[in-house]
Amino acid sequence: MDAMANDLRRFVRGEPIEARRPLAISRWLKGQVKHYRTAAMLLVGLFVILSAWFAITPLLFDGSWRKEQDQQNALLLQLSDLELKQLEHVGGDVSEIDSRYSAIIERLETAATGQEVPHAVGLQQRIVEAKVRWSETLIKRKQFDQAERLLDEATSLAKHLPETNGRILQELSAYLNLARINAKQGRMPTAGQAFDKVMSIQMQGIAVENLLREGIFEGMNDLTLTLTANNHTDLALGVSAKLMEWCRRIESLPQTPLEATQQVAIARNNRAALLFQLGHFPESIELYEAALKSMRQVVDAFPNSDPLRQSLGVTLNNLGRSQTAAGRGDDAEVSFRQAIAILYPLANANANNHELQRQATGVWRNLSILYRQQGKSDEAAQADKQARRGTDKDR
């Protein structure tokens, strides 16, 4: 009251008064005291809004970041796929090839580091693929230790990936290559263990075309040859039996690609050679005849391919050997004559191809053996003469 009286006196004298209007916040607080329910509801609403904002904002930011990361991963996968396909057709400097494979893998591993599993699966699967493909080039160069290390890394990583068709194919390729490496180095128990892994992989959902495209069919053929050459017939029979199953699946396709037809012919050739080695001549003949049917389809499509025609001639020679062993002399003579008709023109046109020269000479020798068994000494002498001509020419 005294303050108010003093302000009135100052006002009468024309002096400034000291009383001031309350601040807005003060007036608002006084109003809220009178209407406390409304104030409480406003405070609760404000709290809810702020809580929702702080909860949603990180999610929106994270979702945007994840989307950008997934887009970057997709671009990296496209780039690496293109680079891997280019490396399939690159020859020349092996150090350059190795450095390019290494760069692809390092780039993928760097991108995958720190990413959560669902987002990194594609990158990790591509890493497995790159290591398996690199191992295949190393196997061809007989750099088995480095190839084995890459495959061990690939199989270890593949175990933690979702069971997709892509992962199954890469795991299949990895264990198959491990079997090939160990077989080529004579480590048959380890090769057998790796092949058991191949056989244990469930492949019901895998299209046989993928086995061809990923080089698995070709790798199985190579493993069969290696095992047969090292007289490990039991394991070779298991590998070739699996190939025969795949051959039947290929031939059941509405339209069989020529590449598949060629691989089928090679697989049957290899099993026929194995059965011939084991003395199963009728089965060997049946497989050689089936292989010839497939090979003729490929040769008809590429009539100017000397390697394909050479393979056809060699298969005819092998068929003749099986027919000779089975006592089918007349059929054997026809097969040998057909082989000579193919191989000798090729040998004459490729005088520096010593392997081809020896193959052509070998047919005459096989024909000479057949004639001797039949008591045809004159024909045998003529065949020997032709063989000696080939031998002299080869020298």
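[next item in queue]
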Amino acid sequence: MAIKENDEILIREKDQNIQNILKRYSYYVEQAVNYGTHILLWPYKEDRPELNVIKLYLRYFLDMLDAVSVLIKAGSAEPAKSLLRSAFEINLSIHFIYDKNTSLRADAFWVVEKINQLKELEKMNPKGKAYKQAKNNFSKESIINFGSGINGKNIRAQIKEVEEYLKSPELQSAVDEYNRIKQGKSGKIYWYNLFDGVDSIESMARVLNKYTFYEILYRHWSKAVHGNNIMKDKIYFDRDGNSYLVPLRHPVHLAWTAKMACNLAINTFGYYVQRSYPERIEEYNNWQAEFTGDYEIDLGHEYITG
């Protein structure tokens, strides 16, 4: 039997005026994403191998902002915060790769990515120690029948492929650096730890002179990601002091959400074009001037306040 939502706690249906406002908010984020799809497909350059990594990051960035546009249109502000947080991390990563040691940091990304992939494959290799440990852990939790359906021969072939990739001569500096870092570091290793890198996203923000954004925005968004922000903007009181839960999809603060998404897009796209395609910077600046003029006016005011 189909169950209808309780509209006191979930606002799926909104009046036409509210819907129109949300569509307008979402429109600007969609326009940013649309432009991003074009610059993402600008041609690769043989003398810029780091573009392989940068374009992967940019593609992921567009994915986050596209999802934000969908949530804005649905009137769902809170879940968008975790996506904006991810988008900001991507922005930092792109800046950090280009900050210095660019080709080495791009290589570090591939090496760490492949080593992590190798670790996951080892957990699925029935002939390996990691598999036995993983199977034991899963059996204690009784979640799934770990190992069922695994093709050991296929997994071992994938392991060999990754191992051969990590032997590539052009990656040996990054492999050696990873092993050096591993000797003096416990816990997980991230690509940005290598080659005179940093130990955390917070440190990355400091190095890139983006710590103010980190402190004000990233920490705020992180509360939504980690499930700690369960009170702020979730309860309201009437004039008599009675408390109520704020409904899901309560469409407030969404002009601010859309503006933050657009600001991140401008900052990310501008740096990407400046560093990867400087010969097309005038083309980009023309688009940015028109786009910024539109969204900064329209998103400068919250038309839905309660």
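[queue empty]
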